[in-house]
Amino acid sequence: MTMPPETVPIAVVVVRDGVLPLGADETVAEAGGRALLVGTDPHTAASELTGARTVWCAENGSFQPARWAAQLASVLAPSGPIVLPASPDGRDLAPRLAVALDRPLLAGAVRVTASGAEVLRWDGHVSAELTSEGPFVATLLPGVRGVEPPARAPRIVELLLPDADPAPDATTVAVTGPDPATADLAEAPRILAAGAGLGRGELPGPDAVALLGEVAARLGASLGATRVVTDAGWASYERQIGTTGVVVTPELYVAFGVSGAAQHVGGLGHPRHVVSVNLDPSCPMTMMADLGIVTDAPALLRALADRLGVRAGNEVVHG
User: Fold this and answer.
1) Which residue among 93, 130, 243, 318 is least crowded, i.e. fewest CB within 10 A of its CB?
2) How many CB atoms lie within 10 A of CB 276?
3) Is there a contact between 84 and 101 (Cβ–Cβ < 8 Å)?
4) pLDDT-based confidence at residue 245 (cuts at 50, 70, 90)
């Protein structure tokens, strides 16, 4: 089956047991709705895609990046820019595919064009425009663009990948779930966010944020923070949510002492449930929340930690 010509981009998405990785829909939309799904049960994954127009499905067994790169290179050689989600599998496959095709790799893109990509560097604080004289391989960061559904169902095309010569390859021993404490915030289903209001209680700001992190871990959630909190050094910049930080779309977002400045709210995609804990019932975060708890955020945090048996420093927290 013929792939798109040299000037037309195509998305390559790794599928595990019919499940799409984070950012798959955005990557396919960035490629104009053209996607090659490869892995196990890609047909189920194709039915879950939003914004796809033509989908090539290649059943190819368990993920083996070296073998897959060799197989895909022979099929994608005539194609234009190749875009993969910046998911773990996408970040693993992309450089191998770039080498196999002898193309430059533009990693960490927020926008892809026919001639290059806009990429983020220095922990997302610097944006750079990169161009390529010919086709290239890029990885697209999740949460950077919206997706509009097509007017009709996508065209599904069966694709049989050629065999590849045996070569040393990575072997998957086990696939474990992400640790909420270290997982990328863009992938976190539940987030407890720290705002400047947490620094106005009995505990100093850094200790209050650390306690919120412990509570989040006990609840299977990830710690997030506003720019004020990260600039103060109470949390690392990788925890920052906002237009200059990470864009998130969790199932549950609980904001402790977060006023809801435009810069921070701009980093909230479409959380399914938002809870605001703040003394100000009229602050933007409380106004946009599904549930607004008008109370002292540090005090509620201490009470919640006490209920969960979480320690603050070396002491047991008492409400």
Assistant:
1) 318
2) 29
3) no
4) confident
